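Renewal narrative, Specific Aim 1. Our central claim is that a sequence can be written position by position from structural information alone. The example that follows is taken directly from our test logs and has not been curated for this report. It begins with the structure tokens describing the chain, in the order in which they were read.
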């Protein structure tokens, strides 16, 4: 799954033949609206990915500053009395654009990022999830090399 996600992201970064034919010597990304030509995406995996991604939280925190993004995609049936799905939660860490990492936290029910803060120079996300009357609270400390998840009594936000 991770290799497929990397391959799909790489493909998105490559220009299409139509875009290459329309290039001129000017700066990129500043064409007038009349020059934009939408393209229907046919790759079903890519269509599903982009339709299911939700940004739960996003911030620049830590010292040095790191970009921390908590994302979720559609998961499995939650096995409740409804047709609710779990969400696959991921944490993306970007340290100055040079050191990128992505971690899968797991399939969680109704995840919510309470806050993203800096603690002892490290980016930390507080996440709650679960049923309404019995929610878990997690502290997620991030670095490009690893993710440390610990249970806390309640959010520190």
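The sequence written for that structure reads:
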């Amino acid at each position: 799954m991770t290799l497929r996600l990397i391959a799909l992201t790489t493909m998105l970064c490559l220009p299409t033949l139509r875009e290459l034919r329309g290039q001129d010597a000017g700066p990129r990304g500043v064409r007038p609206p009349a020059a934009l030509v939408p393209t229907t995406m046919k790759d079903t995996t890519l269509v599903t990915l982009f339709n299911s991604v939700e940004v739960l939280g996003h911030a620049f925190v830590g010292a040095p500053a790191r970009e921390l993004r908590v994302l979720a995609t559609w998961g499995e049936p939650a096995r409740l009395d409804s047709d609710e799905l779990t969400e696959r939660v991921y944490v993306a860490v970007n340290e100055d654009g040079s050191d990128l990492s992505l971690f899968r936290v797991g399939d969680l029910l109704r995840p919510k990022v309470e806050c993203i803060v800096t603690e002892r120079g490290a980016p930390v996300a507080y996440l709650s999830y679960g049923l309404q009357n019995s929610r878990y609270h997690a502290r997620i400390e991030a670095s490009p090399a690893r993710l440390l998840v610990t249970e806390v009594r309640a959010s520190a936000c």
